[in-house]
């Protein structure tokens, strides 16, 4: 017999064996899923919208379905259904989509915009409930406590008072305009008097300075102390003279008044004696 040489067996690690069986199982699952998907596609029939126009059976399709399919084909705007409805002037939503759509304010707005038939809203929502009517009446009672007649009377009284104030103001302005000429004359007189007093004061100052210079007999600096002392002396003397002149003028005026009053008294006494003699 010939000797038989046996090949050595190669042993694989356990991790490699596990990875190999996992790969085989995933491939098997993928093949089975593909088979099921192909069977499902074969069993399903394509919808009428998905088929070209030439493959659609018009006899098997109802009129409503055909119109809906044509409308869907025509819609190229890519707008949302609610926006397209608003653009076409119909109710945006067939059913309420939010709690806002159930509010009275929203329903009233839809009724006013799309009408009774277009909005599908009961028109009775436009009328206030008993509670709303009571609250409105209470608000009007508090906010407007006076009646229309009372408000009209108050407005008339206020208007008359306003007109009286305007008339009084106009009368005052007219009265002051009448005195405007006199006020202008008085103002000009006061201005002229002040200017005359200023000129007289300047002339008096110049005269005193000239008298001081003549007193010294030579030219002296006005800032010199002797010049300032003599100038102050001359000013005091001049003020005394002015004061004395004013006193004499006042005495003369008083004497004139006394003489006039005495003459009037003498005339009155003479008239009284003449009447008594008669």
From TrEMBL:
Primary subcellular site in the record, as a coarse category: mitochondrion
Biased amino acid composition, Basic and acidic residues: 237-259
Residue span of region Disordered: 237-278
Annotated signal peptide: none
A Gene Ontology term for the protein's cellular component: nucleus
Keyword field: Cell cycle, Coiled coil, Mitochondrion, Nucleus, Ribonucleoprotein, Ribosomal protein
Compartment(s): Mitochondrion; Nucleus
InterPro entries named among the record's database cross-references: Ribosomal_mL64, Ribosomal_mL64_sf
Organism superkingdom: Eukaryota
Pfam families reported for this sequence: CR6_interact
PANTHER family: GROWTH ARREST AND DNA DAMAGE-INDUCIBLE PROTEINS-INTERACTING PROTEIN 1 GADD45GIP1, LARGE RIBOSOMAL SUBUNIT PROTEIN ML64
Similarity comment: family membership: Belongs to the mitochondrion-specific ribosomal protein mL64 family.
Function, in words: Acts as a negative regulator of G1 to S cell cycle phase progression by inhibiting cyclin-dependent kinases. Inhibitory effects are additive with GADD45 proteins but also occur in the absence of GADD45 proteins. Acts as a repressor of the orphan nuclear receptor NR4A1 by inhibiting AB domain-mediated transcriptional activity. May be involved in the hormone-mediated regulation of NR4A1 transcriptional activity. May play a role in mitochondrial protein synthesis.
Protein known as: Large ribosomal subunit protein mL64
Source organism (scientific name): Anopheles minimus
Lineage: Eukaryota, Metazoa, Ecdysozoa, Arthropoda, Hexapoda
């Amino acid at each position: 017999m010939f000797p038989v040489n046996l090949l050595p067996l190669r042993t694989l690690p356990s991790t490699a064996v596990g990875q190999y069986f996992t790969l085989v199982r995933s491939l098997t699952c993928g093949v089975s899923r593909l088979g099921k998907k192909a069977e499902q596609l074969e069993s399903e029939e394509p919808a009428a919208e998905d088929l070209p126009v030439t493959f659609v059976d018009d006899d098997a399709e109802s009129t409503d379905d055909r119109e809906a399919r044509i409308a869907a084909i025509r819609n190229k705007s890519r707008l949302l259904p609610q926006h397209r409805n608003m653009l076409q002037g119909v109710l945006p939503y067939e059913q309420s989509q939010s709690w806002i759509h159930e509010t009275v304010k929203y329903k009233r707005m839809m009724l006013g915009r799309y009408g009774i038939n277009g909005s599908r809203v009961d028109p009775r929502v436009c009328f206030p409930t008993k509670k709303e009517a009571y609250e409105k009446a209470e608000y009007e009672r508090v906010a407007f406590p006076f009646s229309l007649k009372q408000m009209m009377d108050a407005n008339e009284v206020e208007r008359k008072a306003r007109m009286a104030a305007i008339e009084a103001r106009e009368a005052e302005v007219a009265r002051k305009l009448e005195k405007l000429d006199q006020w202008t004359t008085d103002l000009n007189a006061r201005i002229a008097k002040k200017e005359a007093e200023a000129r007289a004061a300047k002339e008096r100052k110049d005269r005193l300075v000239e008298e001081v210079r003549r007193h010294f007999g030579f030219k002296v600096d006005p800032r010199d102390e002797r010049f300032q002392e003599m100038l102050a002396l001359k000013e005091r003397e001049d003020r005394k003279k002015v004061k004395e002149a004013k006193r004499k003028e006042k005495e003369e005026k008083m004497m004139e008044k006394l003489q006039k009053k005495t003459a009037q008294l003498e005339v009155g006494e003479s008239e009284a004696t003449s009447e008594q003699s008669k």
